[in-house]
Design a protein that fits this description.
Elements (H helix, E strand, L loop, with lengths): L1 E2 L7 E2 H11 L13 H13 L3 H15 L11 H26 L1
Antiparallel strand pairs: 1-2
């Protein structure tokens, strides 16, 4: 799956998930499967180098919008509604990112 962004044409959900699982203290172990050497190299790159600035902003926005309440439950939230909200919030976040980039240029 790919999360659409303006600059790169997409951020791999795999990159985002791998970064989350390896940096989240509540996740004690992360098991990763790779089908190809390229996938392995990309996974190692995320672990060793981290995410791009855009991906970091994206994760922060998703955490803020959807996980700020530590008692949040997905019970009763439809999957389609969830993904629509995620998409809308990510579009807002990338818009803010590009405004910041243009202001510093």
């Amino acid at each position: 799956a790919v999360v659409s962004t303006q600059s790169t044409g997409g951020s791999s959900i795999t990159r985002l998930a791998l970064q989350f699982s390896t940096s989240e203290p509540r996740v004690p172990c992360t098991l990763v499967g790779c089908e190809t050497k390229d996938q392995l190299m990309e996974n190692l790159k995320v672990i060793n180098e981290g995410l791009t600035q855009e991906e970091t902003i994206l994760i922060s926005t998703v955490r803020e919008k959807f996980f700020a309440d530590s008692h949040h439950s997905w019970e009763g939230v439809g999957e389609e509604k969830f993904w629509t909200k995620v998409k809308n919030e990510m579009e807002k976040a990338t818009s803010v990112y590009w405004k910041m980039q243009n202001a510093t240029a």
